[in-house]
Structures are given as C-alpha cells and as structure tokens.
C-alpha cells in the first residue's frame, strides 16, 4: 500500500516550529488526551518486581507480587536485571544520536521500499493506509533482533558506530528478563517454569522498536502513540529516564506510568500471552502522550516461533472456563498486527480471534 503521507517524518514537521500540529495529527475532540485527566500513579502504588528474586523459585513472596502486578496492572517496573546502567545509558544515547542525524543518513535505513511502500523494518513512520487515519506524533526505527540469523544488517544504523553492538548486548540482557518473567509467570500459576517458554519455543522472534517523540507544540491535540495492546507474549521497555508520557488504561481510567529510575525497565503483557493463558493474563491498553520535550524509548517485543500455533493452553480451559480465543498461527497473528494497528484496533479483534458467546454455548 502506498500512501503519500508515508514519506513525511514527524521530526521534520516538528522542526518547522508550527504553532500547532497539522490536521493529519489532530485527534477528534473525544479522543484527545485531555478528555479525561490521567490519574497520578503514586496514589495507586505502581508495582515493581525484582527479577533477581524471581530467579529464585523459593521466593514465593516475589512470585506472588508478580502475579498481583499482572492481575491488577498487566505491567510492572523491573529491577535486578543485571544490566549495567552504562549499557542502558549507552543504547539510549546511541538511539537518540541516530534520530539526531540528518535525514539523508537516517533514510539509508528507510522503512519504505523504492516504490514507496511500507515495510515493518527500518526507519520511518508507522503504516499509513488512508487519508482519514490520524497520525501519531512519532518516528521509529524498527529492527528484528532475534533470531540472530533473521537480522537484516542494511536496516541497522552504523552511525553511531556503537549502536549495533549496544543493541546486541541489550537484546541479550533483556531476553534474560523476558525469560525469567515467563518462567515466574508459569510458576505463579502452579506450572513448571518451562510452561510458557515451551509454547514460545527456543527460536522465538524478537523485534526492537526505537521510538522518537519530537517536542510537540500542542500535546493536548495529538497522541505520541495511539492506544494499543502489544503484539507480543511480553514486551520489555527501556523508557526515557527524564521524560514521561506513557499511560495505561487501568479500571477504565488513564494512569501515568511513572518516570522510572535510570536502571529500571518496564515489562508489559502482550496479546499473545492473553491468548495462550486464556485471558488469565490480559494485555493492558496503553498509549503515549507528548510534551514540550523530546522523548525516546526502546521497546523489545518477544514473540513465539512463527510456526507455533496460538491457542489457549488446555490447562486454562475447562467446563467453568471455555476457550475465549480461536486457534491461529503465530505468523498470521504477527502479520495481522500491522493491519490492526493502522486502524487502531487490537489484533485479537481485527482477526476475529475471540470466540463468540453463541459459539461457546454450542461447544
Ligand atoms: O514509548 C513508549 O513509552 C511506549 C511505546 C509502546 O507502547 C510500543 O512501542 O508498543
Ligand atoms: Fe506498546
């Protein structure tokens, strides 16, 4: 699909110092972030989990904390991951340095084909399908980081030269976090540590997304990133230590995710886990609001091997709890994400994966 807006980076629009964002970015009044003020997270005690403690199967207290964080929020801050602050600071500054390069440099890794078509990997904006689509106030660099043989080096920036190695090291460090969390999520439900890891497979795919949110002249009119749930089993996020903007929908209200400490990560449950666990763990809806300062984040999406089948595991299905989702291939689900995201829909809804009530009764 070729849409003319596909070529316009938000960073360039923002550099024009317009008094307000162009109409392509302006939300309908009822969707604007100011429609309902976000609640302060301190009042709701935002959860933090120590993954070093999670690695100890005897630490039932930390496992219980994880379960409660997942049930009440679907996301939590992470400490004890073992990655030095120098690595986290290093990959953050390398990412920011990339976005600060001249366009001609960044476009060497463009996410548009020569014919102007969108492809997920590379530097650019998210997919634009129609004139009606309200665009998000962000540019992004999207890269497949695992399995290693699936990396496509021409999409990887070489300026700054430190970026590929830092991203590699960060990928390995945060993969450990994802695996520890998946093991503890299984344990929290009384299963063996390998339960979810087995459903994901040894060669699960991981995609990285660096997102750059330029300063916005009217944060009240736009989204940095529209409300969505993640296309992942779990997602590991490295947020900006100086600027907030991420919000999560909790009990029907938007709540600010706090600005985390420089050494902390955030873990979010994705839709694939929601399917596998038959909604025991649900993917929280989240969005990003902009501000007067630039912001950059790095997000890693952990996905099952593409050949795997996504289906509620039989351990979560019984007479009192019918399967809530239909079976489909992990690759079909991952591909469907891009169609769904452009429309602002959940992939589960877009691909009609939910079992309707009548079907449940007939089963
Ligand atoms: O930039 C952020 O804070 C969140 C990004 C996000 O939710 C995503 O990339 O899926
Ligand atoms: Fe997300």
UniProtKB/TrEMBL annotation:
Gene3D superfamilies recorded: B-lactam Antibiotic, Isopenicillin N Synthase, Chain (2.60.120.330)
Identify the residues that the record assigns to the Fe2OG dioxygenase domain, covering every copy. Answer: 204-304
Q: Which InterPro entries match?
A: DIOX_N, IPNS-like_FE2OG_OXY, IPNS-like_sf, Oxoglu/Fe-dep_dioxygenase_dom, Plant_2OG-oxidoreductases
Keyword tags: Iron, Metal-binding, Oxidoreductase
Superkingdom of the source species = Eukaryota
User: Where, by residue number, does the polypeptide cross the bilayer?
Assistant: none
Which Gene Ontology MF annotations are present? metal ion binding; oxidoreductase activity
Look up keyword Oxidoreductase and say if it applies. yes
Family assignment from sequence similarity: Belongs to the iron/ascorbate-dependent oxidoreductase family.
List the PANTHER family hit by this protein, alphabetically.
OXOGLUTARATE/IRON-DEPENDENT DIOXYGENASE (PTHR47991)
> Which protein, by its recorded name, is this?
Fe2OG dioxygenase domain-containing protein
